[in-house]
Design brief:
The chain is α/β, with parallel strands linked by helices and 284 residues long. 37% of the residues lie in helices and 20% in strands. The strands form two sheets. A six-stranded mixed β-sheet has the order 2-1-3-5-6-4.
Length: 284
Amino acid sequence: MMIKGTTKNLGVMGWPIAHSLSPVLQNAAIAAADLDYTYMALPVKPEALAAAVNGLKALQFRGFNVTIPHKTAIMPLLDEIDKDARIIGAVNTVVNDDGKLTGYNTDVTGFIDAMLARGFNPKAKEVVLLGAGGAARAVVWGLIKSGVKAINIGVRNPKKVQPLADEFSNYGSITVFNWDDENFSAKLAQADLLVNTTPLGMAPKIDAMPPVDWKLVKKTAFVYDIIYTPAETKFLREAREHGHETLNGEGMLTGQGAAAFSKWTGVKPDIDVMKQALRDALLG
């Protein structure tokens, strides 16, 4: 694509940022939609965050994504914050409307839409989350917004995760267990949806997985791992071998990117193009 004087700029800021797949996803979507935009990686050190935000505003960037370690730190620098992002306590997408910066969290949309696209609706369902990793807050809020019946979180260290449960219990039923506890086994047996939010099984440590006794899990339970490298984790492979419908994190990643793309451009991107670009990049 030719970059011209009229080209609108987008980007992703983080530190480090070289590993980010967002430029691959977004530029593929831009090319497929034939838009006069470009999307770049923006390495921003933590101490330079405020200067970077002012700089992007001065340079008339249409918007940008925000990744580690800036997702919470950026919030005081924005003019407005969407409800989802405020409740989750993290922003991953910023839109610049003539110098007014609004922060959003599109991980919620990405997580839920990928599931709906596979034909599973979590409304009124019993949910078990394994772990409370980095994306857990967006996952929990997405599930609560979808009207799930109850969320049960199984973790190694319940004390550490209890504050998250306390905070979200204003909005829905949420309980934390030690995943070795027999009370947790009972919840596992009731689950309609089982989600891994831990990094266990992510490349390069692909032999790891959270502890699940598949004999306890209902055959009809839908099993979701938000990891996308590898495409099938040990957790998902075992779920599939036990006859469960499974879903990996590819749809969540491309879905959050697609939601951001729509906010900046007003155009719905081709999500299949984004998924293919992601697969090609991972193979490359």
